[in-house]
Design brief:
Elements: H1 2-17, E1 23-35, E2 40-43, E3 52-61, E4 69-73, E5 78-82, E6 88-92, E7 99-101, E8 109-119, E9 154-155, E10 159-163
Length: 174
Amino acid sequence: GLKRRWHNALRPLVEQWIGNVELEDTDLYGLRRYTRGSTLMPHVDREETHAASVIVNIGQYGMDEEWPLQIYDLHTGEMTNVTMQPGELLFYESAKCLHGREVPLNGDSFVSLFAHYRPRDAPRWFLEEQHDSLDWTSTYDGALPYSLGDAEEQVGSKTRTFVVENASPASGEL
């Protein structure tokens, strides 16, 4: 179905972002529609299923101002505001990075899709003594491993948004 198509289309992008680690699908939520006044309490996601995650901003309607995601930057130790536009993707480690939307939505609606993955055949990846598959500390040089389009925001080494031009999930293309 459509859920599988989204997971399949996004997985290669997440695998490339996380350093060419082979991933397996775990969860996909959405389309989630937030309405005026909505907030999202800061939280981290489940370790078992949310090693590498992506948010797809599907649409924003009647927005009076941008609605930032507050996300904990693992490298600076600070919360950072990240804004998105329709068609943008945000990659992040949702089981490690505290994230939420504490500022109420000042707009009619904000629609996103959330896809989550973990290393293939490693359901307990987070208990391993060394997290080589997701550890960028040995290679982190302040830049991401690749660029897909024009960056609107970048938070530390683990979070990136980029524009997907001509996105057409109904036809199976991203």
